[in-house]
Amino acid sequence: MNKNIDSEVIIAGGSVSGLLAARELAKNNRNVRILENDNEIGTPEKCDGLISINALKSLSISPTNKLIQNEIRHAILYSPNNSEIKIDARDKGVIVLDRSEFDTELARTATRYGAEIKLGEKVNTIQQSANYVKTISDKTEYLSKFAIDSRGVNSSSNLNNISILHAAKYEIQGNWFNKDTIEVYFNQDNTPNFFTWVIPMSSDTAKIGVAGEKINVFNILDKFVSNKGGQITKKIAAPIVISGPIKKFINNSIITVGDAAGQTKPTTGGGIYSGGMGGILAGQTIIKFLENEITDINNYENKWREIFEPEFKKMLLARRIFQNFTNDDINQLFNILKDIDMTNTIKESNFDFHSLIFTKVLGLKNILKIFKIIASSELKHLIKN
């Protein structure tokens, strides 16, 4: 094996969080190298790219028209008995990114600043030594001052610390969906503890995905497309992390970001903003540490948790409650929610931190009704077990 000892930071994984960490480091003249398992950045596409313009601005990204596939103005949620809840999202600035092109553009930005990307190089292990970090790939052994683990669900060091749901998505051509409307279908028989989603890319193309526990995701998607109609043009397996942040992001000079750190929303699996911010904060903290501006590398983790942990705790609670819901429970919940006008509150809310929406719009009477459903569901779960 050859040894390279000239990198201050090695980043394992070239998705959003790793690339944004590299951008921060490289633009501050730090020596950084990214090792990406795949032979092309952005392929296969990691997620559906649903995010708000405000979130992208927080990541210091101004998306060009080339990166934006679609703008979302509405969402419709469907219960198991086909009741509907319609949500007006016209003022939220929600867009659908071309994730492959988005990742590619992040890579271009990082390399313009001086980062080096090595493709087709799989990181097998990252080891802490006394004075350096050793990153061992299938080709070479690297020594660096810091290593950032951005390998997502492929991070072997954290497989026991994260919970993963089987998920997959298709790209289809069809004519039964609206260009500006997301659709979400809840059914515990088809997608236990998760849902089916439809995210339009244009007037006749859409990304359709499913996730759930102990299901054949491709069979579920095949049936859904067969019922709705359309021509499948792409199939992608894309497991999602739903367990929330791992206990520790930092192990001496090994720093974990993104999906590998559980920085994805437990309710939806989305992580461009939260994981991307993890990469940025990790990069900025390493810079300050190397420049002797700070002495505690844990500043990265503290800042991330300060921003996201309160919201993530609420989402984890919602996920625990939802796991015990039957289809009847979901139908009852929809009966309470479908007649409530959420428009004004949603207009005032933050798309990326949305846990307060329902408490604002429900009112005490409806909250008590929902608590009865939750209590009944929990009781049935205890009896069952």
CATH architecture of the largest domain, by name, is 3-Layer(bba) Sandwich
Strand content: 25-35%
Sum up the overall morphology in one term.
Answer: globular
Number of H- or I-type helical stretches: 9
Order of helices and strands: EHEEHEEEEHEEEEEEEEHEEEEHHHHH
What do the pLDDT scores average to? 88
Biggest beta sheet attributes? 8 strands, mixed
Low-confidence stretches: 344-348
**Overall tally of structural domains:** 3
Q: What structural class results from the helix and strand content?
A: alpha+beta
- CATH topology-level name of the largest domain: FAD/NAD(P)-binding domain
Helix content: 25-40%
Tell me the radius of gyration.
22 Å
Please name the fourth-level CATH homologous superfamily of the largest domain: FAD/NAD(P)-binding domain
Distance between the termini: 54 Å
List how many beta strands DSSP finds.
Answer: 19
The CATH class designation of the largest domain is Alpha Beta
Structure characterization notes:
The protein has 385 residues and is α+β, with helices and mostly antiparallel strands. It has three domains: 3-62 and 97-161 and 243-314, FAD/NAD(P)-binding domain; 164-241, 2-Layer Sandwich (D-Amino Acid Oxidase, Chain A, domain 2), CATH 3.30.9.10; 315-384, no CATH class. The chain is 35% helix and 27% strand. It has nine helices and 19 strands. Helix 5 runs antiparallel to helix 6 and helix 7 runs antiparallel to helix 9 (356-384). Mean pLDDT is 88; it is low at 344-348.
